[in-house]
Amino acid sequence: MTTATVTPALIIPGAERSLKNSVGLGQTLSNSFAMAWRGLLKIKRTPEQLFDVTFQPILLTVMFTYIFGGAIAGTPEDYLPFIVPGILVQTVIMTSVVTGVQLREDMTKGVFDRFRSFPIARVAPLAGALLADTVRYAIASLVTFATALVMGYRPDGGLAGVLLASVLVIVSAWSLSWIFAFFGVIARSAGAVQGISLMILFPLTFLSNAFVPASTMPDWLAWFVSVNPVSHLVTATRELTTTGASGVEVWVALAASAAVVAVFAPLTVRAYMRKA
User: Fold this and answer.
1) 95-105: per-residue pLDDT in tens?
2) Cα separation of 39 and 102, whole Å?
3) Which of 18, 191, 230, 265 has an alpha carbon within 20 to 30 A of 177's alpha carbon?
């Protein structure tokens, strides 16, 4: 009589990780949207996460309009068409910092370590975080325009111009979120991510044409403002809200967004894969 011997299955180190990495595009997209939904549920449980995209646009729009409106445009009402696109751009792109901060917090707390045991695409948690934050950008855009409308702002570009301007700013913020996601992966703490990100964004937003015309600045500063990508985005947003038509500045802003994604998306994914 022959006795059959059963040999335990050989466990190859890294096999599970390789399996996750070889999932198809359809599953990757499905997993990414599931992770995005997880991010939105986190906001539902802790609504204070939306304070920066709800209260900040209101405060900035009201304060800047009534403090600088008379000095720059003669009246606050005349200043609104100029300042509202600037506030929109500043608020939304500053919100993109949250992507990197929350990503670093999740990685520090070991949340992503638990994801490794799930049969999901390895890149899904990263992609989901980036997708979920587009909702934050949309909320910031809505609150900014709603506040301005209450204050008497009437965009000549109509609803179409406002929607196109919002989409342009959201796309630009999403592209910037890849930069801060990269910092979120490589930095050691969420505080470091926030500090580095704000150090980059504050000069770019305030040294632009978001709040005052570049013509009022010294020549050396006006030159920097003219090449500042934030200035091009603000100008494009003003064009859309004022005329409803897309000019050269719109395409410049889109090209800049595409360039940022082309550079930082591969860097971020590569750095994330090494730690995931």
Assistant:
1) 889 888 888 88
2) 10
3) 18
